[in-house]
Amino acid sequence: MDLTLWQYQFRIIMLGDSTVGKSSMLKRYTEDLFMECLNQTVGVDFYVHFLEVEPNVRVKLQFWDTAGQERFRSVTRSYYRNSVGGLLVFDLGNRTSFDHIEEWHQEVLEHVQPHAVLFVLVGHKSDREEAAERTVSKDEAEKLAGRLGVPYVEASSKTGENVTAAFELLTRRIYQGLLSGEVQVRDGWDGVKSSEPRRPSQLSPTGESAKEDKKCAC
Ligand SMILES: Nc1nc2c(ncn2[C@@H]2O[C@H](COP(=O)(O)OP(=O)(O)OP(=O)(O)O)[C@@H](O)[C@H]2O)c(=O)[nH]1
Ligand SMILES: [Mg+2]
What we know:
Layout: E1 8-15, H1 22-31, E2 44-54, E3 57-66, H2 73-77, E4 85-91, H3 95-99, H4 101-112, E5 118-124, H5 138-148, E6 152-155, H6 163-180, E7 192-194, H7 208-212
This protein binds guanosine-5'-triphosphate and magnesium ion (MG).
C-alpha cells in the first residue's frame, strides 16, 4: 500500500499556554521522541501523520503546532478558522494553564464559525504525579471537560502514556462527525478535505466503496 494515499485530510490545531508540552506531544506522536530541552515554538510549526480510521480509510492529519506565548497570538489566530479539530492542552502541574483552557476554547469557537470544530482536553505531564507536582485534580479536569462537552485524557510525552490515544480519540471523533454529517467537506474551507468526490455518507459502514477508487491526493 502506498503510504501517501489518503481519503481524508483533517487539520488539527494544538492549543494551550506556553510550555504545557504541545510540541512535545507532537514529537512523541509523530516521531516517538521526547526531549527534555525543546525550543519554544515561534509562530506556528507543522507536522503530518497518517492514521487508518477503518480498513482502507486513511486520514492524513495535518497539525498546526501553535506557539503558546501571547506575543504570537495574532499569527496563531489566523490558523483557527481552517481547523476541524483542536487539542486543548494544559500542564497538570501548572494551575494557570488549566485556568486558561476556557479562554482558548472560546477564542477558537469565535473564529471558526460557521464550521464545526471538535476538541479533546488533555491534562499533560501526568508523569509528574509521582513527584507530587499535580496542581489540578482529575475530578476538576473532568468537570471542566463536561462543561465544554469534550472528552478528557491524561497523558505524558515523557513516558508516552496516552499520547497516541489522545490524538486517535480526536481523529476518530472527527471521522464519526463526518459520517454523521456533523462535520462536512466544504468548498473554501480547509478543515477537512476529501480525495474523493463522494460524501462519507455514501460509504458503507465497512468503507467498502472507498476501496474501489482510491486516488493519490498527496
Ligand atoms: N515532565 C514532563 N515534561 C514535559 C512533558 N512534555 C514536555 N515536557 C517539557 O516541557 C517543556 C515545554 O515543552 P514544549 O513541548 O516545548 O511546550 P509547548 O507547549 O510547545 O510550548 P510553546 O511552544 O512555547 O507554546 C520542555 O522542557 C519539555 O521537555 C511531559 O510529558 N512530562
Ligand atoms: Mg511548542
